Amino acid sequence: MKMRNAQSVPLSEIPRLAIGEFRVEVLRAVREGERLCAFFHHGGRLWAVLACDESGLLRLVSGEVQDSYAALTPECPQAHWFEREVCEESGIRPEGHPWLRPIRSGYADFYRVEGDEVHEVAVGPVHAGVIEPGHFRFQCHGEDVLHLEIALGYQRRGAQALIQGGPDRRTVHVMETLAGDTSIGHVLAYAQAMESLSGTRVPARALAWRGVALELERLANHCGDLGALANDVGYLPTASFCGRLRGDFLNMTALLCGSRFGRGLVRPGGVRFDAEPGRIEDLLRRLEAAARDSASAVGLLWKSNSVMGRFEDTGKLSREDCLALGLVGPAARACGVERDVRHDFPHGIYSYAQVPVSTAQTGDVLGRAFVRWLEMQRSLAFAKETLEHLPTGSIAAAPAPCAPERICVSLVEGWRGEICHVALTDGAGRFARYQVVDASFHNWFGLAHAMRGQQISDFPLCNKSFNLSYCGHDL
Amino acid sequence: MLKELIARFRQGHRTIAFPVAEPQLPDRFRGRPSWERAKCVADCTECAKVCPTGAIQGAGPAGLDLGRCLFCEDCARVCPSGALRFTQDFHLAARSRQDLITSDGTLKEMEGLSAQLRGLLGRSLKLRQVSAGGCNACEADINVLGTVVFDLGRFGVQFVASPRHADGLLITGPVTKNMELALRKTYDAVPAPKIVIACGACAVSGGPYLGSPQVLDGAAGVVPVDLFIPGCPPHPLTILDAILRLLGPR
């Protein structure tokens, strides 16, 4: 069953394969270049969402499963984290999985490297800075990291369980807080799914505002990350300039909707806030000033030898490993992989306005930093262009109830990368299943992999260059 | 070095004058709600019906719980008479959970620390932040206090890396079951006397996750809390104002 981003189809049209056929089908698709966007268990079946970046099409397959099946992971490393999740949630065992541990409920038997001079370093869950909790277990030989195991789950709030049976008055607020720094990204994925399931047409002006809000979210976070990367290598000018500029981008979102994180802006059917000409001029003025100041602040990084010395060749990932692990977002694009939902699976405003894909080839901290800067420039240009040519008309359509017994896959390129929401409705049009895959879900293992052979003292820098979400993963 | 100095000159001075001068907030900012009961249509419960967290319980002295409020405006948008609206007032903190439960959104004047604690902490407060299910919005707007815009250090307040170095905790998130032990251990590691601040709707009441079997509905169920800061997330100014009022006149 092939479908486009945010297109909904009747559940009955999804192929229902025997588990052996399902396995062969998923493995073949991944071998031929498709990606595993989502993988979950529901109603006695395993479901896989496969994405073909070249054709811009999504494919859904499902396979009947009993208590166990032959794991996909040995032949398809992308499935590694997904199969652990399925086993943890449903008890269905992927036989032959190389490291079958829960991803959200903790465990004590970490992978250990044995040897006279090998030592172990345990960090977290409570970290040194103002950040979310997670546990990192390093196997080290001297300063060198042989292996890093990342144990998450401390942020588990039970978000997906709260969404099942919805939508209700709480649903959209859970969406806005799945990963609070990606409020627009997640609520947009939710809104697209709802609109598709209910057949609601969103007015053009609302689509434009959603695009502006999504790019402002990207700008704020990329700018903050560049500042934080500068801070982690002790280069304070950019750290303090970008710290301020990040707030300027957040304040632009607040100028539009009152909330620095865009809370309350995007709702199924459209957006809740419009702007009069004076406010749009104000936004444009602020964008121009922020563009000028961030060029000056970020430009310092590339001209500073001490910064470049720390960024270059640190936390390097090869293009092959990136593809095998199925990484997304700036982390993938820094490895030269052209992968961007806005380009490959355009929906909403991105169907009309192109944002070029920004890549680097080095796969290291420098690559991840530089891709962020390229994306900032393109987001600035996009936001300016969109604000100057806002479509006229209303900003919201009244959403109808969701149709029963349908499925929709909704993708959004959040600032961390691909956000995937899969909604299945029951006979009454309620969510029988709502699956959320944040970009972090794909990328945490990429961080662990990038740390191999690195110095442990470079971990904060590597970690920041990925800047993944703990709660977006733990849900 | 010259390029850094030129950039520094161009970036200019960015620290806000607060608390000496009142800050400029965006006109659409949603601060403390105000509920003019006299304007209510008889028997209308539209606001309570749409409130995502049950912050609105209808008429009566416990009608509006700012600790649960997400400041989402869902209530004001359905209010037929304009009785419920959000003001620009960003002063939102309270010393007890009970003080956030009001009839019309008005909060009583917040008291600072006792004279003894103020003597110990008033000019130097070191806090350890613990995120226990926070979505990273509260955390982000706490981090912002460290930027040149708010420059928290000028008030003698600082976030430190170890609970052993801290005078108290600032907790975000509804406190997940998976973080309960870590939170207790961190609390125990802070030397007495210590204070605890619950920041954001989640840490105050559970927020959007209230009642989820995976969370403990806020910090107060695990450790004693001295300061409650509502908001989802609270504006950085709300957090800063709350801490400054806790520490008392400077």
Structure commentary:
The complex is a heterodimer of chains A (475) and B (250). Chain A is α+β, with helices and mostly antiparallel strands and 475 residues long. Chain A folds into 2 domains: 2-95, Beta Polymerase, domain 2 (2-Layer Sandwich); 159-439, Cytochrome-c3 Hydrogenase, chain B (Orthogonal Bundle), CATH 1.10.645. Chain A is built from 16 helices and 16 strands. In chain A, strand 15 (417-425) and strand 16 form a beta hairpin. The longest helix of chain A is centred in the middle third of the chain and has 29 residues, at 204-232. With 250 residues, chain B is α/β, with parallel strands linked by helices. Chain B has a domain at 115-247: Rossmann fold (3-Layer(aba) Sandwich). Helices cover 26% and strands 13% of the residues of chain B. In chain B, the strands form 3 sheets. In chain B, strands 6-5-7-8-9 form a 5-stranded parallel β-sheet, sandwiched between helices. A two-stranded antiparallel sheet of chain B has the order 1-3. The radius of gyration of chain B is 19 Å and the shape is globular. The mean pLDDT of chain B is 93. At the A-B interface, helix 3, helix 4, helix 7, helix 8 and helix 16 of A face helix 1, strand 5, helix 5 and helix 6 of B.
Précis, in short:
The complex is a heterodimer of chains A (475) and B (250). Chain A is α+β, with helices and mostly antiparallel strands and 475 residues long.
Helix percent of chain B reads 25-40%
- CATH 2nd-level architecture of the domain at 115-247 in chain B: 3-Layer(aba) Sandwich
Residues in β-strands, percent of chain A: 15-25%
Q: Describe the main β-sheet of chain A briefly.
A: 5 strands, mixed
CATH top level assignment of the largest domain in chain A: Mainly Alpha
Largest sheet of chain B: 5 strands, parallel
Low-confidence runs of at least 5 consecutive residues of chain B? none
CA-based gyration radius of chain A: 22 Å
Question: Regions of chain A with pLDDT < 50 over 5+ consecutive residues?
Answer: none
> Reading side by side through the largest sheet of chain B, how are the strands ordered?
6-5-7-8-9
